[in-house]
Amino acid sequence: MFERTIQLIGQEAFDKMQQMRVILFGVGGVGGWCAETLIRTGIQHLTIVDFDTINESNINRQVVATHANIGQSKVAQMRERLLAINPSADIIALNQRYTAETSCNFQLSTFNYIIDAIDSVDDKVRLIYEATQTDAILLSSMGAGRKTDTEQIRISEFWKVEGCPLARALRTKMKKTGLMPAHKFQCVWSPELSGDSGTIAPIVGIFGMKLANLVISDILHS
Fold first, then answer.
1. What is the CATH number of the domain that holds 116?
2. d(Cα 98, Cα 65) in Å, to the nearest integer?
3. In the structure, what pLDDT confidence band is assigned to residue 194 with cuts at 50, 70 and 90?
4. Which of 98, 109, 126, 168 is the most buried (most CB within 10 A)?
């Protein structure tokens, strides 16, 4: 199944990709597309974390959501989908929420890449703080809501993100709590604000795929 990937990047790079351990927090709109892209590209060891269940309002944008699985665990359904793509993948699904109280359960230092697709400001600040205490590479999604223009989606270092309400809320919380990141990290974000608090598939899909591609690109160039 990976013949075309290996043709493009070479066997050595592909073997390296298969050795990497990735943990992804949040498998909703952004995280679901990120997880699927990672598995389709050749990531073999992926841990997915989410405490939520699928509801009808998710169907417009979340890759795992259908009318057939409303009410089911997102991580359980995502794991099933990913194993249908690559049955030999090592996929661990944790039906948990990352919080200050549960942070010690995840052993972040055992991963090569930590991907943050969490919505909650408090949980996101805690994850960013804890992740940057490790040697893992942290990649984070900023807000994907209220956006329709895929051309405005970009990648930059967290402190250079501009015009994103989520990034602004995170900085305010970090300064208030003292939970400042230990080092810089890359984010996917967009400055666009267009309308009410809705979200559509093209935006979250590209956010997720860009996060996945940051992992892949780092592996290929490191």
1. 3.40.50.720
2. 22
3. confident
4. 98
